[in-house]
Amino acid sequence: MSDMAVTRELFDQVMVPNYAPSGSIPVRGQGARVWDQQGREFIDFAGGIAVNCLGHCHPALVGALKEQGEKLWHLSNVWTNEPALRLGKKLVDATFAERVYFCNSGAEANEAALKLARRYAIEHHGPEKTQIIAFHQGFHGRTFFTVTVGGQAAYSDGFGPKPADVEHVPYNDLDALKALISDRTCAVVMEPLQGEGGIISPNADFVQAVRELCDQHNALLVFDEVQTGVGRTGALYAYMDLGVTPDILTSAKALGGGFPIGAMLTRADIAASLKPGTHGSTYGGNPLACAVAEAAFDTVNTPEVLAGVKEREGWYREDLAKINAKYQCFSEVRGKGLLLGCVMNEQYQGRAKEFLQAASEEGLMVLIAGANVVRFAPSLVITREEVQEGLARFERAVARVVNG
């Protein structure tokens, strides 16, 4: 197998066509740098979509993987294991939560959260309390339940009848939420900063009011922190800076630093509704994933790294302002910490993808969040030099687009 020619063409021959990946194939990474098959270097501002919180091949993660890889990979949940218990204890100690459920991804964490919210409401308030309210442009995963709760119908249309009793209102629109919420509502599901929807921050008074409305109607507040969690916004979890505590929180992406893992966190009284047999995951909480995640969590959850995220946000904002003063293509830079979005102004509407492609040609990996936002979600420990070099490449990419 090793002498097989592995090219981008092979993708089209063997893979289901739901992705259209870049022409170059990365083969190696170190810190915030990645090299492709041809040895071409990229600066990574994409972070595997906010996953690689410690960049590539961080020694703490490599060490944890190698060490656990020699011990135990998988048991099944007929037994528990030490890495899962240690990671669970650390998550509980560091957050509002009292109980943790492990799975493999953000979608699975959200699936568990939605099932728990429904089950809790039905057990405590009766069979009518099933309505889930979420927000337009929200994103919660691609399982059929989570993609229906996500606020982009295009992602859930065309697959037949959708899970019922799921409704959407505009983000930051308190009146719309007030008009819809009732004692039939079992949960309000929201990102404390919309990621895929365009890097939209919540108004502080809006978040407070959502919490109060949930309390009034005995509805659970579910925070999807898959993208915002584990240091991304400069707090360990975004809710900590908002002065609002959810009832259920979901975490994934950066939690494993690149190794697949997800977690749903909640209070003990709510968790009680998932009794043995009600929900599960074959790989969830396996020792290999939990050992790597524990190393990632320990590394990020320090005052130095979290303060460093806010410092790095300053580096980005300062240099992006200089670039924009020259080329005038962004109306604003949105977001918080190291989840940032450059928003196209009127002249460049719908052209975010052109900036992404030009960046790639200049040796820079970036993301988009919709047609109008170029998104950055780099390593939380990216160096000043890597940021400067990446933004120099970004400036050349911007010049390319602006000058046609």
UniProtKB/TrEMBL annotation:
Pfam families membership: Aminotran_3
Required co-factors: pyridoxal 5'-phosphate
Signal peptide: none
Reaction(s) this enzyme catalyzes, per UniProt: N(2)-acetyl-L-ornithine + 2-oxoglutarate = N-acetyl-L-glutamate 5-semialdehyde + L-glutamate
UniProt modified residues of type N6-(pyridoxal phosphate)lysine: 253
Superkingdom: Bacteria
Oligomer status and interactors: Homodimer.
EC number, as in UniProt: 2.6.1.11
Species: Oceanimonas doudoroffii
TM segment ranges: none
Sequence positions that bind N(2)-acetyl-L-ornithine: 142, 281
SUPFAM superfamilies from the UniProt entry: PLP-dependent transferases
Annotated GO biological process: L-arginine biosynthetic process
Leading EC class: transferase
GO molecular function: identical protein binding; N2-acetyl-L-ornithine:2-oxoglutarate 5-aminotransferase activity; pyridoxal phosphate binding
Family listed: Belongs to the class-III pyridoxal-phosphate-dependent aminotransferase family. ArgD subfamily.
Cell location: Cytoplasm
Keywords: Amino-acid biosynthesis, Aminotransferase, Arginine biosynthesis, Cytoplasm, Pyridoxal phosphate, Transferase
Residues that bind pyridoxal 5'-phosphate: 106-107, 139, 224-227, 282
Pathway this chain belongs to: Amino-acid biosynthesis; L-arginine biosynthesis; N(2)-acetyl-L-ornithine from L-glutamate: step 4/4
UniProt GO cellular component terms: cytoplasm
Protein name as catalogued: Acetylornithine aminotransferase
Note in the entry: May also have succinyldiaminopimelate aminotransferase activity, thus carrying out the corresponding step in lysine biosynthesis.
